[in-house]
Amino acid sequence: MLPSRQNLTKAEEAHSLPVLLYQVTKVVCHNLRWLIFGSALVIRLVEVCRLYATPYGLPLTGDMKFYGDWGMRIAHGEWFQGHAFYGEPLYAYLLGAMFRYTGFHPLLIGTLQAVIDAITALLIFEIAQLLFTDSTRHARAIGSYRLSENSRA
User: Distance between CA atoms of 152 and 135, rounded to whole angstroms?
Assistant: First the structure.
């Protein structure tokens, strides 16, 4: 027969199965975060290296040239164009800040994008954890119940 929770000492409670499972889950999730970030980063860096080994890796046309030129103008002090933005400005300003300190290096641009993509994969994992853990599932159930009660009134 298992002892009741009230009869457990602090040491026994610290080593009880639910506490151990919680601690293991915490460690696994922490390591899983690094695994997701690392694997996404490695995959993206391999693809960046493969891309820059081809003639298509240089920003000669299209969006790569557009944002590269815009970033260079920002790096040289031309912060505003005098008209509405044609593209998304945050990326151009990020490139401009990078070009200001490192110069124009296409491989460095790809590396920056790989890091941003790995962070995005990690954020998706964190959002999924928030949406699908037990505590949030219960909170959403209570919230939906209260909404349905309010709609009946």
Answer: 26
Instruction: Give kind and range of the element (H or E) at residue 108.
Output: helix 106-132
Nearest one of 49, 123, 119, 59 to 95, comparing CA atoms = 59
Place of tokens 């490695």: 42
**What's the predicted TM-score (pTM) here?**
0.61
pLDDT tens digits for range 81-101? 766 667 677 788 888 888 888
Q: How many helices (H) and strands (E) does the chain have?
A: 6, 0
How many other C-beta atoms are found inside a 10 Å radius of the C-beta of residue 94? 16
Per residue in 22-75, pLDDT tens? Answer: 666 666 666 788 888 999 999 999 998 888 888 777 776 777 788 788 788 888
Cβ(52)–Cβ(105) under 8 Å?
Answer: no
What is the Cα–Cα distance from 106 to 99, expressed in whole angstroms? Answer: 10
- Give the C-alpha distances (Å, rounded to integers) separating 60 from 47, 55, 66, 67, 100: 19, 9, 9, 11, 20
Confidence of residue 107 (pLDDT cuts 50, 70, 90): confident
